[in-house]
Specification:
Chain lengths: 252, 252
């Protein structure tokens, strides 16, 4: 019997990434060392931090000269003022600010804490910025994998975001290439033939969350997952189409 | 080589559920007909609609006598006024209301459109309410499965929710039993030995989203998924601990 099954496989053995590393090539090699091959229709979910590192988006904290505004926020939040300065320089907009916590609009319109500027996994005294254009990063990885392995995979760049209304962060897609991030199921019918009224599913975010089930084991150092067996709609819409416009957001 | 792998298996062959059906038993039978067995440590994600049906939470629209308030909202939104009345009666609080769209606090504190009261898959002229206590529903299914199959699975009741900031709905957990819905990774260390500052991950929501990759194929009628190979922390915290308190919500 043909089981409806989706597999999420963590890619082990990717070395610690540095600026200029050919990430796609390191992924292909690691997959091969696991005795696997990438296949057409696989979805590769790549954690933002390794993309940022390969693109040289890690900065020394000492490069940042905090403004008085940054100093003030740092004082309230207990953050390093140079970290705050990096956050402010990476923000397109401050969406909320309270007790020194910052919710910012980052690259691609994604709204998240600290504009995605993170000390974790950046190295001591360093800060990791988001990729300059995560959709472009996804496309480049995808094209390079096609070149190296001859297969057409979809690529998602994932990041861990807090969110309104619900506690705990989840992983979402901040970049993608090769799949429609939002599946439009309006017009499909339910079990009783009734047309579904509104059914737009953000499959890119669901795939990023699914990948976290293997990526999340930080001590194992798994920055990439293969999702295999999920039938997605191909498309070229970027993940920057996922953020809602303010006007369109009933919740806010 | 031992692959870090998580499998998501759709449970096929579950009949259309009616009031009083022993859902756990139908799941166990369907799994067996697929040539599989449930195992200790499996996570069973069950779509809210089949839980609601088995618990007799489907109502005829004609049972609802719309208030004038419901009529007014119906006029603006194009909804059936009896559907609106059902929504209002199921709401603990109206969080946002605009152009006839309703964002409500539903059972367990979960905030979603229409208080989760849905016409889809309810049957013609009918409306499906959420389970009265989805955490209790999850626990009952879990205990019944232990009774029937002798295995300890974790159970998540999932629902599809729109959300602020990002377009497209995703699946989240509105009920759970047997696993900690939020994983607290504060105090763990990153690749460079730096302590992770804040890392609370809502694994219950990520698992619900992962399950949607097989449940979401509506035409296949797959209301249940098995997630296998994910190492979770056991616990008894309910999914009603996931919604943030208003005071605690920096986003709003």
């Amino acid at each position: 019997m043909d089981l409806p099954k989706v597999e999420i496989i963590g890619v082990k053995g990717i070395p610690i990434i540095g600026e200029g590393d050919d990430l796609a090539s390191l992924i292909v090699e690691a997959v091969e060392r696991m005795g696997l091959n990438l296949r057409d229709g696989d979805i590769l979910v790549v954690s933002q931090i390794v993309v940022s590192k390969s693109e040289g988006r890690v900065r020394k904290l000492e490069e940042y000269k905090p403004s008085r505004f940054a100093e003030e926020i740092a004082r309230k939040s207990g953050k390093d003022p140079r970290h705050v300065e990096a956050i402010l320089q990476s923000s397109k907009r401050i969406v909320r600010m309270r007790d020194g916590l910052l919710i910012c609009e980052a690259v691609g319109g994604h709204i998240c804490a600290n504009a995605g500027v993170d000390l974790s996994n950046a190295g001591i005294g360093r800060v990791a910025l988001l990729p300059e254009d995560p959709d472009l990063s996804a496309r480049r990885i995808r094209e390079r994998i096609k070149e190296l392995a001859g297969v057409d995979v979809a690529v998602i760049i994932s990041d861990t975001h807090g969110r309104p209304l619900r506690r705990g962060s989840i992983n979402v897609a901040i970049g993608c290439s090769g799949l429609k991030p939002i599946l439009d199921r309006r017009g499909e019918r339910d079990l009783y033939g009734r047309t579904l009224r509104s059914k737009m599913i953000c499959v890119a975010d669901e795939l990023a969350s699914a990948a976290e089930l293997v990526i999340g084991q930080a001590d194992e150092g798994i920055p990439v997952a293969i999702i295999r067996g999920y039938k997605f709609e191909r498309g070229e819409e970027p993940a920057s189409t996922i953020p809602r416009s303010e006007r369109d957001d009933l919740f806010l």
